[in-house]
Structure formats: structure tokens, C-alpha cells
């Protein structure tokens, strides 16, 4: 397969994930190739399990529209680092904190490696990898069933472990978040776990870069407690942030240097 074909097919998958339905004719015009070339692309992507097609050559979202952790690690890197820097500065000596799985919470774990007298419990492999050599950080792994896509633990064993601890702060990730419905995730198991994590913690922070604000990619939701803090980056439009502030959420917008506005 040529590099041009690979790039085009990757772009088709990304387009399907971000904007939804597209016809063969629309894709042909967009990429400047023939309709038969697009049909071959779609047939191969369907065979690979990356797309599902319907009648008339129209394709819905990819069969697994949730981005893998590997994909997310390369997205909005600077924004995530700034958010992580701000979040790390909130954590005090002697605290016990809880980190969700995900790339932004993994960036936060990276910032915590020099810490002393800190206990970090986590459901995420990324945070564990960051802290594996942090000798002065006590690390609690909340095991369970591993979701390979998100590289995090879920399920009854994870929930049972959470029931045995409480936390000064929890830092949650999200596939998307809205002021009305809270955190959006691909599965109900994930959203149930996030609700439990929030209930076990005194302070709740949701760490998301601006592209995730107000989006609804899935149909599973985690309801947020009455008091919680949304932390996002400085590329967020005022129109995206305003609904959260209007609903009583504490909103923090972080500049690239890790300081809040």
C-alpha cells in the first residue's frame, strides 16, 4: 500500500470519527480521487474493522469511535501538560489522591514523580508507568478488568477497592463533558466508575482540553456532584466555557505556562 493511500484511509477514518456520515461522492470530491478508489478504501477499512457501511455507500461512525489511549497521547500535548502543571500545584504534602485513567491524568502523574509524602491511587496504566520509579510516592493500584483501549481498570474489583478508601482529591478524565449531563464516555461501566470515584473524594476535578467541551460522542454519562471543578486549556472559546460557569461549576482556564486566568 502506498503512503498516499495509507494517509487517505487514515484521514477517512478520522473524518468519520469527527463529523459522522459521508457519501462516496463527498469523499471522492474531498480527496480528489475517483469514486471507485473510495469504494476500495471503504471496503478495505470495513474489512479491517475500522468502518461500518450502510446502504448507498454511506458510512456511519467507525465501529469503535472511541480513540485509543495511544491515539490520545499525541493529541493536544501542550494543553494537557499545562493542565497537569496546574493540577499538580493544587496537591498538598501528605494528601491521598485518586487519578483516573487517561492521557491527561498520565501527564499529571508525570508531574508528581518528584513528590514526597504523597499517596496516589489510580485506575490507569499510564499513571502507574509514570510513578513506577517514584520512590517517595506511595502508589495504590486499583486493579480489576483491563480495558485495553483506554488502558484502565474497570469492573466490580475496581469498585470494591474504591469502597475501601477515601481521597482528598480526584482527577478525572473524559471523552467529553457537558454542563447539563456531566462526563461522557463510551460505556456505562466507565461512567459508573467515575461516579464512584467522585463520591469517594472530597474535591473533584475534571481535566479536559478544549476540544472535549460540550461534545456528545457517546450515550453513557457520569453525573457530577454539586460541587466540582472543570479544568481546561486557554484555547477554549468563551461560548464553550460559559454554560459550565452558568450552572455553578468552578471553571479554571489554564494558560500554556500552567497558570490560571
UniProtKB/TrEMBL annotation:
PROSITE patterns assigned: HTH_DEOR_2
Statement: the UniProt record of this protein carries the keyword Transcription: yes
UniProt lineage: Bacteria, Bacillati, Actinomycetota, Actinomycetes, Streptosporangiales
Protein name: DeoR/GlpR family transcriptional regulator of sugar metabolism
Domain HTH deoR-type per the UniProt entry, residue ranges: 5-60
InterPro entries in alphabetical order: Carb_Metab_HTH_regulators (IPR050313), DeoR-like_C (IPR014036), DeoR_HTH (IPR001034), NagB/RpiA_transferase-like (IPR037171), WH-like_DNA-bd_sf (IPR036388), WH_DNA-bd_sf (IPR036390)
One Pfam family named in its UniProt record: HTH_DeoR
UniProt-listed SMART domains: DeoRC, HTH_DEOR
Keyword Transcription among record annotations: yes
Keywords in alphabetical order: Transcription, Transcription regulation
GO molecular function: DNA-binding transcription factor activity
Superkingdom as given in the UniProt entry: Bacteria
